[in-house]
Amino acid sequence: MPGSLGSLVDLFGQQTWRGALAWTVFLGAVAFGCSLLPEGRWRTVGIACREAAIVMGLLGLWRYVGHYVRLRVTGGMDNGLGVWSFQQAVQLPSEVWVQSWVLPYPDLVRFLNLYYMSLHLTSMALFLVWMWWRYREHYPRARTLVAVTTLLCMLIQFIPVAPPRMFPELGFVDTAQLYGQSVYGWGGSSVGSQLAAMPSVHVAWAVILAWFAWRVMSGPIRYLIWFHALMTIFVVVATANHWWMDGIVAVGLMGLVILGQGLWSGWREDHSPAPAARLEPLDDALVS
Q1: To 5 degrees, how large is the angle CA 99–CA 105–CA 107?
Q2: What is the dihedral of CA 106, 110, 112, 114, to 10 degrees?
Q3: Residue 196 DSSP SS3
Q4: How many alpha carbons fall within 13 Å on the CB side of residue 141?
Q5: For the whole prediction, is pTM greater than 0.85?
Q6: Which end of the chain has the smaller Cβ count within 10 Å, N or C?
Q7: Peptide bond into 199 cis (omega under 30)
Q8: Residue 279 has pLDDT above 50, yes or no
Q9: Residues 6+ apart with CB under 8 A from 157
Q10: Phi-psi region at 281: left, alpha or beta (left = phi > 0; alpha = psi -120 to 50)
Q11: Whole-number Cα distances in Å, 154 to 57, 82, 177
């Protein structure tokens, strides 16, 4: 991984909630200091630091809440079996069938494991920076969509749900464990983290990127970002990290937030003060 991308992963992916809080305070202080300076380059730096402080604050909240989500494990296996049974009832394609496409190719499986581990955080970091730099008028809406969708996902994650990889008896293969690439370690460490899989934040973030790319960007890059979204959906299933329903629920939550943003914008427009009417000069006859 290139050094710059690795740095982004380290900054956004490895922060504890305390580290994120420290960054939030530091960036907020820099932003406040820059706001006291005259208009110019430093004011732009201050705005950038303010937005970075907001993102790090949201990351810290995600980490803090996630700590408590990971303490809830009771019923996780039964809930995972419930998702599997529901998917069979509605005849969704089997994740085992998808895995059968890739398992004969070890190098491909290693690449999919790496894709799952690293690109979701890196792509989100790059997306937020790019949106702020090139499409600043759309940035607040994108940031809010990311934040609210992620928090809604975390609320549902208080209900533990085991991912497919924890059911080898059903034919699933934990590809990350198979090739020594698991972030959870051998022997099922961090069990609570593994049960916080429903909904899939990986899928939610990837589809959010694609949604905004299609709306505000032009040229080949938006097709590349849509490919990333489709690739993410394939990867989370092929590696047995998520059920189909994990992604479906995540996209549904994203859709609800987009609907809420639209309703809020419409309400604000309907209730915003009407511009004052321009007074025309009085007719000479009326003056007389």
Answers
A1: 115
A2: 180
A3: strand
A4: 17
A5: no
A6: C
A7: yes
A8: no
A9: 66, 69, 196, 197, 198, 199
A10: beta
A11: 16, 20, 25
CB atoms within 10 A of CB 138: 15
Pairwise CA distance, residues 31 & 16, whole Å: 22
Tens of pLDDT, residue by residue over 174-227, are: 998 888 877 665 434 444 467 778 899 899 999 999 999 888 888 888 888 899
CA distance 254 to 233: 15
Please name which of 146, 108, 150, 152 lies closest in space to residue 126, comparing C-alpha atoms. Answer: 146
Structure tokens at 57: 């604050």
Q: Are 160 and 75 in contact (CB under 8 A)?
A: yes
| Coil/strand/helix, residue 161 | strand
The residue to which tokens 């809604």 are assigned: 152
Q: How far is Cα 165 from Cα 241, in angstroms, rounded to an integer?
A: 6
